[in-house]
Amino acid sequence: MRHVFYFSPHQDDELTNLGVDLSKEVSVGSAVHVVLCTDGSASGVKRMLCRGDGCRWHTGAHHYTLDEPAFVAARDAEFTESCLALGVPRENIVISPLRAPDSMLTADRAEQIMRQALSGYAPEDCVIKTLAPTSAYRQNPDHTAVGAAAERLKGEYAVSLLWEFILRPADLTGFTVLRPTEAELSRIKKAAAGYRLWQPERGRYAVGYHSVADEFDDFLKQPIGIAVEK
Ligand SMILES: [Zn+2]
Ligand SMILES: [Zn+2]
What we know:
Blueprint: E1 3-8, H1 13-16, H2 19-27, E2 31-38, H3 45-48, H4 68-86, E3 93-100, H5 107-118, E4 126-131, H6 141-152, E5 158-163, E6 175-178, H7 182-194, E7 198-199, E8 204-205, H8 207-221, E9 225-228
Parallel strand pairs: 1-2, 1-4, 2-3, 4-5
Antiparallel strand pairs: 5-9, 6-9, 7-8
One zinc ion is lined by residues 55, 57-58, 62, 210.
């Protein structure tokens, strides 16, 4: 059995940055695992939800004061729903007990998270997939950390890195561009809907969408995965 482990820095990276590749692994019947590496708590949406602003999607002002655990829980719910919609079995959706506070992930911590998630599996049966550390671009530090950790594990595991969608180079020569089939696209759209779900009375605040709406819209318009050939 081929086990493919996706390490997602935040709630949403498993979709916008890793989702096309992930959909394809689901399609070919790999055992797909997704491991969340931070808590996503640093998002500005937490403030945005409580300070009385409006937004482009919802009528009226937002006066929802969430404490940090409630905010993280809202994001985790979006993440879990997205993974399920993408076709990941529930038992393979992992919120790492070692996850770092948002923006505090280091390569050391990411390596620990990876080793813990992979323990119990034969290295030859496993593939690590995560974001490439694209240091030449302005990349989120948590994104750089997962990529750096994956590079450290290259001698022990098969590692495959994906380029961040929003940082995609204008010239994709040298990259493998993945495009979803119709069935994969329908799973991707269903996963995206989880990040748009607005049901404050049930703890759902569309955090993903409030946070990076343009990125979601861009991605859904032309969903591609960009694998780095090495
Ligand atoms: Zn991220
Ligand atoms: Zn809103």
